[in-house]
Write a structure and sequence with these properties.
Helix content is about 50%, strand content about 5%. By secondary structure, the protein is mostly helical. The strands form three sheets. A three-stranded antiparallel beta sheet has the order 1-2-3. It has a two-stranded antiparallel sheet with strand order 4-5. Strands 6-7 form a two-stranded antiparallel sheet. A hairpin with a 5-residue loop joins β4 and β5. α3 runs antiparallel to α5. It is globular, with a radius of gyration of 22 Å. About 55% of the residues are buried.
C-alpha cells in the first residue's frame, strides 16, 4: 500500500472515530419538516376537520367559551396538558407565520406550504374569536391547577373550562401585543392566497396593538391563573415586537416611529422565547437597517448591534457566550431547554438570509461571521436535536430509529378514543397510563421534547416533565429552519 493510500485510510478512520464519539447521523430534514407540521394537528382543540391527518385524536372542548356566552372552540393545547394559554399560543402562531413568510418558497418546494398555512390558520381563527371587541381579549381557556391534577385525554376531560379575559379595566399589554404580532405576521403569510382573510387579520392586529399600548399592564395582573404557568416578565418587548410586525405588514409610519422611538431596545439578550421577544424585534429592525430603510445610527442601529451580539454569543464569538453541552448543544436553562435552542437556530437562519441579501457579515468580538457560518450554527443545533448527539437519540418524537417513547403528554400517553371509547377518569389516568412504564400508545409525531440536560443526558420517563414534555413554542421555529435546510441539501 502506498503512503498516500495509508494516509487516506488513517483519515477515514479518524473521521469514523469522530462521528462515533459525537453521534453524528444522517439527517433527513424533509421528513422532519413533515412531522413537525403533523404535531400541530395532534395539538388541535375543538371540532377536527375532515382532512385531519392525525387520526388517533378526536373532537374536544366543544363548549369552550360557553360560560361567557361566546364561541371559543379551536386553537391549540400548549404542551402536554389540555389548557389553552393565549400568550404562548400567540407566540407559536407568530413563529409559524414568520417561517411561512421568510421560507415560503422552501416550504412550497417541499410541498408543505398548505400544511404550514393550515397550522397558522388553526391558531389565528381562534385568536380572532378570542378578540370579540377592540379592548377585550380572552387569554386562557381551562384551569391549569385542576387540569394538572388529572391525567385525561382531551376528548374525555371534564375539568373546569373557565374563560379568562383582559379588557380596558383589567389590561394585559403583553398578551395584547403578542396577539397583535401573531395576527400581523399571519396577515402577511395569507396576503397572496387569501386577501380578504389577510385584511381581517390585520384589522384585529391593529386594534390589539392600540389596546395594549393604551391600557398598559402585565397580563397576569388580570389573569392570575395564567401567570402561575406563563408569567410575563414585562410588556415593552411585546409592544415593540408587535410594532415591528405591523410595520412589515403595512409600511405605515406610525409603527416605524414606535419602533425607532422606543426608550428601551432591550439591550443584549440571553434568549429569545415566548416571554422575551426583544431579539425578534431587534432582528426585524436589523432587516430594515440592512435594506437601507432604518438608518445605521439611533435606536434602529442600536437594535441591529444588539441582535448581532446575541448571534455572536450563540456562535461562541461574543463577550458572554451561551453555554454549550459537551456534545455541542446550546444550553440556556434546565426546563425545556430545546425551546431556546430552536429559536436561536431560527434567528441564525433568518439572519443569514438578511446578511446574504445585503452582502454583509457580522463583526463579533471573537471574529467575523459570514452568512454561511450562521447556517452552519443552525444546522449543528438541528442535527443535534435530530440525533447527532452523544446519546444518538432524536429528540423529535417519531423521527429516526431512537426517540422518546414516554412523552409527558396526556393525549399521547392514554389510549386513543378511536380504539377504546371507555372514558378515562381524572385519577384513573394516572394509575392506568401515566404510571405505566411502557411506550405511549399514540406516537406524537413531530413533537420536540424539552431535551437533555447540560451534560447531554436524557431520561425517557413521562414523569420527567422538564425533559419529556413537548410544547408548541418549541417546534414552531423549527418549521422554517427545516424547510431551509431541506431545500439546501
Amino acid at each position: 500500500m502506498s503512503c498516500r493510500s495509508r494516509n487516506i485510510v488513517k483519515v477515514s478512520l479518524l473521521v469514523c472515530l469522530f462521528l462515533s464519539i459525537y453521534g453524528a447521523v444522517s439527517v433527513d430534514y424533509g421528513t422532519a419538516l413533515t412531522k413537525s407540521l403533523l404535531y400541530y394537528e395532534a395539538q388541535r382543540s375543538g371540532k377536527l376537520p375532515s382532512n385531519q391527518r392525525v387520526q388517533w385524536r378526536g373532537d374536544s372542548a366543544l363548549k369552550d367559551g360557553s360560560d361567557a356566552n361566546i364561541d371559543l372552540t379551536g386553537g391549540y393545547y400548549d404542551a402536554g396538558d389540555n389548557v389553552k394559554f393565549g400568550f404562548p399560543m400567540a407566540f407559536t402562531v407568530t413563529m409559524l407565520a414568520w417561517s411561512t413568510i421568510d421560507f415560503g418558497s422552501k416550504l412550497t418546494d417541499k410541498k408543505e406550504m398548505a400544511n404550514s398555512l393550515s397550522a397558522v390558520k388553526w391558531g389565528t381563527d381562534y385568536l380572532m374569536k378570542a378578540h370579540p371587541e377592540p379592548d377585550v381579549l380572552y387569554g386562557e381557556l381551562g384551569d391549569g391547577d385542576s387540569d394538572h391534577a388529572c391525567w385525561m385525554r382531551p376528548e374525555d376531560m371534564n375539568t373546569p373550562r373557565t374563560s379568562f379575559k383582559i379588557d380596558g379595566q383589567h389590561p394585559g399589554s403583553d398578551l395584547a401585543g403578542e396577539t397583535a404580532a401573531a395576527l400581523a405576521a399571519a396577515s402577511i403569510a395569507f396576503r397572496a392566497s387569501d386577501a380578504s382573510y389577510s385584511n381581517q387579520l390585520l384589522g384585529h392586529a391593529k386594534q390589539l396593538f392600540d389596546f395594549g399600548r393604551n391600557h398598559q399592564s402585565e397580563y397576569q395582573s388580570s389573569i392570575s391563573a395564567a401567570g402561575e404557568f406563563y408569567s410575563s416578565s414585562g410588556f415593552e418587548d411585546e409592544l415593540l415586537w408587535a410594532a415591528a410586525w405591523l410595520y412589515r405588514a403595512t409600511s405605515e409610519q406610525t409603527y416605524l416611529d414606535y419602533l425607532s422611538g422606543t426608550g428601551n431596545t432591550g439591550g443584549t439578550r440571553t434568549q429569545f422565547s415566548w416571554d422575551d421577544k426583544y431579539v425578534g424585534a431587534q432582528v426585524l429592525a436589523s432587516k430594515l437597517v440592512l435594506e437601507g430603510h432604518g438608518g445605521k445610527s439611533g435606536k434602529m442601529g442600536e437594535m441591529k448591534s444588539e441582535a448581532e451580539q446575541f448571534i455572536c454569543s450563540c456562535a461562541q464569538k461574543g463577550n458572554n457566550n451561551v453555554k454549550k453541552s459537551p456534545g455541542g448543544l446550546l444550553w440556556f436553562q434546565e426546563w425545556n431547554n430545546l425551546q431556546y435552542t430552536t429559536t436561536a437556530a431560527f434567528i441564525a437562519t433568518v439572519y443569514s438570509n438578511y446578511l446574504s441579501h445585503a452582502k454583509a457579515s457580522i463583526q463579533c468580538p471573537g471574529g467575523a461571521l459570514q452568512p454561511s457560518d450562521l447556517v452552519d450554527l443552525a444546522r449543528a443545533q438541528v442535527d443535534y436535536i435530530l440525533g447527532s448527539n452523544p446519546k444518538k437519540m432524536s429528540y423529535m418524537v417519531g423521527y429516526g430509529a431512537r426517540y422518546p417513547t414516554q412523552v409527558h403528554h396526556r393525549g399521547a400517553s392514554v389510549v386513543s378514543i378511536k380504539k377504546d371509547s371507555t372514558p378515562v377518569s381524572c385519577k384513573d389516568g394516572f394509575a392506568k397510563w401515566f404510571n405505566k412504564n411502557e411506550a405511549d400508545p399514540n406516537v406524537l409525531e413531530g413533537a420536540v421534547v424539552g431535551g437533555p440536560d447540560a451534560n447531554d443526558q436524557y431520561t425517557d420517563s413521562r414523569s420527567n416533565f422538564k425533559m419529556a414534555e413537548p410544547a408548541t413554542v418549541t417546534v414552531a421555529p423549527l418549521v422554517g429552519v427545516l424547510a431551509f435546510l431541506a431545500s439546501s441539501k
